[in-house]
Amino acid sequence: MWPFRHFGLKLLALATALLLWYVVSGEETVERGLRVPLELQQLPAGVELTGDVPTTVDVRVRGGSSTLSRVLAGDVVAVLDLRSARPGRRLFPLTADQVRVPFGVDVVQITPSAVAIVFEGTSSRQVPVVPAVDGRPAPGFVVGPMVAEPAIVEIAGPESAVKRATEVVTEPVSVSNARDRVRETVTLGVLDPSLRLKNARSAVVSVQILPAPMERTMRNRPVHLRNVPPNLTAAASPTSVDVTLRGSREVINRFEPDEAVAYVDLAGLGAGQYQLTVHADAAHDAGVTRIEPTTVQIRIAGVSVK
Description:
- About 10% of the residues lie in helices and about 55% in strands.
- It is mainly β.
- The chain folds into 3 domains: about 30-110, RNA Polymerase Alpha Subunit, Chain A, domain 2; about 120-210, YbbR-like domain (RNA Polymerase Alpha Subunit, Chain A, domain 2, Beta Complex), CATH 2.170.120.40; about 215-300, RNA Polymerase Alpha Subunit, Chain A, domain 2.
- The strands form 5 sheets. Strands 2, 5, 8, 10, 11, 12, 14, 15 and 16 form a 9-stranded mixed sheet that branches. A 5-stranded mixed sheet has the order 6-4-1-3-7.
């Protein structure tokens, strides 16, 4: 080996390295505050996130001015490992080791330094599918019975949210100007964003369109509360609703107001406040066409002991 072979190239490489060292060593070190995304990873099976979970944290970084000037959104990410999560309120510390940064960038501070997250166990339950319609049939026609296939589906999510759920809704089926049965495949959904459907994602909804018979509205019918949980009390607001009935002229004319019974079913519910759908029973083969208002506020509380 000749030590002076390619001497010119070696000298050029040395000069370049010295120049780069000079530039880097002479570059000003600066700090910069960033709001970065917070990624949640390794959530164990059977555990659910509940409540408000932060999606970003504030990170203060340090590095050369030219390096930090090239840092873009998404180059810095905080990562929280949830593999130790279990039901309850848990506190997870955030350290510099949990922040991904580009080469040449150091993490100086993270705010907040810890994140509190509430977890619940995963639960599931079967609930009925409640079809919805949009629009009005042709003049002289009314919406009749509605049937969904499947009629019952399974939902899953945090235990408390599953207990509160009473139904799964469908995308509205349009019955505008309809004169005959409407049948449509529609999407299913749950109103609580913490819940999800386990299997079915759509349902076939059949809506009967019937000739409009005679109608009569029973005003201020009291709302009865059925299946009040043991050792609890319940109250409705408002306490009465208007129930509109449909049937033949003979049936409607002999109908007494007390024969229209409005109610809310509280089976399976615990203490708390709920916005629930009002149902009604009618005698003499009369059908219920409308209930106003359609929902009432229900408050369930423990029995006070004096």
